[in-house]
UniProtKB/TrEMBL annotation, chain A:
InterPro entries: ComplexI_49kDa-like, NADH_Q_OxRdtase_suD, NADH_quin_OxRdtase_su_C/D-like, NADH_UbQ_OxRdtase_30kDa_su, NADH_UbQ_OxRdtase_49kDa_CS, Ni-dep_hyd_lsu, NiFe-Hase_large. Its cofactor is [4Fe-4S] cluster; Fe cation; Ni(2+). It comes from Consotaella salsifontis. This is NADH dehydrogenase subunit C. Residues 38-155 form the NADH:ubiquinone oxidoreductase 30kDa subunit domain. Keywords: 4Fe-4S, Iron, Iron-sulfur, Magnesium, Metal-binding, NAD, Nickel, Oxidoreductase. It comes from the Bacteria. One of its GO terms (molecular function) is 4 iron, 4 sulfur cluster binding. Fe cation binds at C246, C536. Mg(2+) binds at E223. The keyword Iron-sulfur applies. Ni(2+) binds at C243, C246, C533.
From TrEMBL, chain B:
It comes from Consotaella salsifontis. The chain crosses the membrane at residues 70-89, 101-120, 140-161, 173-192, 223-244, 256-278, 293-311. This is Hydrogenase-4 component C. It comes from the Bacteria. InterPro entries: ComplexI_Subunit1, NADH_UbQ_OxRdtase_su1/FPO, NADH_UbQ_OxRdtase_su1_CS. The keyword Oxidoreductase does not apply.
Amino acid sequence: MDILSQDRVGASILSALRGVLPHAILQEEWQTPRQVTITVKPSALQDVVKTLYYEHYGWVSVVVGNDERSLTGVFAVYYVLSMEGPEKCHIVVRVEVPADTQEFPSVTPVVPACVWGEREVRDMFGLKPVGLPDERRLVLPDDWPDDLHPLRKDSMDYRMRPAPVADNETYPFINEAKGETTIVPVGPLHITSDEPGHFRLFVDGEDIIDADYRMFYVHRGMEKVAESRMGYNEVTFLADRVCGICGYAHSVAYTTSIENALGINVPARAQAIRSILLETERMHSHLLNLGLVCHYVGFDTGFQQFFRVREKAMTLAELLTGSRKTYAMNLIGGVRRDILGEQAAETRRVSAELRVDTQRLVDILLETANVGGRVNGVGLLDKQIARDYSPVGPLVRGSGHARDTRADHAFAGYGLVKNTIRSHDGCDVLARTLVRAEEVFDSLDLIDALLDTAPGGAILTEDFEYLPHKFALGFTEAPRGEDIHWSMTGDNQKLYRWRCRASTYNNWPVLRYMLRGNTVSDAPVIVGSLDPCYSCTDRVTFVDVRKQKSVTVPIEEVERYGRERKNSPLK
Amino acid sequence: MPTLSHLLLALGQALLLFAAAPLVSGLSRFERAKMHTRHGPGIFQDYRDIAKLLKRQDITPPDAGGVFRVMPIVMLATLFVIATGLPIFTRFTPLAAVGDLITIVYLFALLRFFFSLSGIDSGSSFAGIGASRELTMGVLVEPIMMLALFVAALLAGSTNLGAIGTAIADGEVRSAAATVLAGCAFAFAIYIELGKLPYDMAEAEQELQEGPLTEYSGPSLALVKWAMALKQTLVMGWFIAVFLPFGSATELSAGGLLVGLIVFVVKLFVLFGLVAIVENSVARARFRLTPQHSWLGVGAASLAFVFFLVGL
């Protein structure tokens, strides 16, 4: 694809970089006018990422490992940086990792935001980030074989599960407290979190001195299965299933990544429809979280009321997509279903109702005695720590950083309308809650504006061909923050590599700083203010652990079960 | 020595309260659901829950000792004793020996002691935190309770709960302002003692996984749940007996008892209705701030004492 060099956004950042580090960049390749991949010398990697991060207002979106031995003879690690200074673009820093030494210099000591990404590359590809301060496993279980790295192309079949060999976890939790502390374990199963995650609170009396946690109890192996057995468009539907709340954001991110890689021009109407659905999703997700905030502080009346109103957002989703969840709407090149005149009118009616109901509930929430005391000044996320760790979504916006993918890197239909970025300087649970409450109203405004401005025309283009080994980024602003997907096409009608990063993945690493200095009773409120999604972060279960077996069910059987709801094929 | 009829009354009212306690807590749940705009369970749900739990297996944590095992029985037994002593349907206490305010306060303290001890004994860190909260709440609430009741006792000239109630009902107390103020302070202490939002500190579900209850299961959990329902009924009955005794039977007769019963049920219903409104329109208080709230109660009770001294 030809991209005229004068259209390129971010070229001046690269020339500035060349000025400081003259021989660092080996190769420069533009995927779209706002997306460039630069291959750098391993010795200059730290300096390049650090310069882009701190001097050009970059944020680490994701770190992608890739086994490119069959293509170039080496492994590669991609550091994806979202540049949010004056020139808003994505710069991907690629470093080649030799197949014999399998080592590369760790960036974490200079840019802490890379810590989870490098730990995951270490687990999944067996590449060694030299100098990585935290060398514990991130994704793999404690008793997983040492030399088995699931995402290497020659390592294992996607159906293989090494037998468990130990009952006890040996994961070392880190406690940086000075004095003596008592351990309060929260999870993997805890009454306020419906998904598994293990938190260790190190407490003195009721005060949390330090905290550590581990996730990935429900890793579903989605990336491996997509790379091993799914066609390009099947992955769209798999991406929907990454999350039970904000799955649509993932399928938009995935399709956008392929569209960017192949240079597909998606019809404007399809893009507008995508944005409308993303906003519907954001609304029901935010209303869910507002309800949960009430629940965590013990104000169950508010919780139930928010869920009552949230039902209208679900009705809206059903109206627009045919299902209460915004599933199965996307294809590479567009969407599967148009919004007709009647549906548009009904959408406006429901959204007007929602506006009134939500306003009333938000007022009640903020005026309820002692709710303020539970969220004000609780779970502080320092502005500088937020800067160092690149969190996303309402979490970072609650700490005074106005970053929102919808405005920074207008994707889908967001270029058609005006986007407001909400941010608050409180750095506490209250600030995050206020950001979410305001965004619900923004979503309603956006839906109305998009219905007004959406042009007519086609909703799907099929005018493209799949080319091998093209790669690019796709991104969305999900309710919890930026979702980013990095996809590389293969030569067998399957993806060569798919890296899908959910927003909460970037938000977990800062949690420990938010928990410090609060009390045990605040812990659920703080964890809840992240609006965490455990299994999206984990992205990975075909095996029924309880029964120790897996079943393959033919699609006809599943469809039959869906209609009749009798005789479950899984029993 | 109590007469046989007094003994029968004591036993009868204790059994009746014991049997009706899950209905009282079921009613609270029902009202809560309505305020949540939920359908919610019926008012007999707590009986079903207890019946279900009684059939389940009883699992004790390996670290737990004897205290953990005997606590449900101690708790229920203590409450049963309290139930025999409170003047519930009658103006006088069925068992004068139990119906003394100091006895009742200490019986409740015994309960709290075992409840907390079982939390620590279970070995769970959540139960431990819940236990320490329970004791802290005790330290905060008992002074209010004692001070308010002592003012009432001084006014009536007796520490027998029945005598205090009679004096208040007959208007024979010297200082009306002191009585009302002591009643308010006592009501506040009772509300905290009910363990409802915003003061359900020890059993805070979202924070501590129900605190000392965390490790109980099966029949023992059923007993503890039953006991907690009975405790809520009894503390409310305690408040009614001392400060709202109007309408209860002054003589031991079938007609009087029947009227007393009906009046008691109505008062209980109204008071729990008020509690439900408060409970469902607030969030849980921060545990750290609870002492600031309880000072209010201590202040009111002290003021009642001052009023008593100056005879207002």
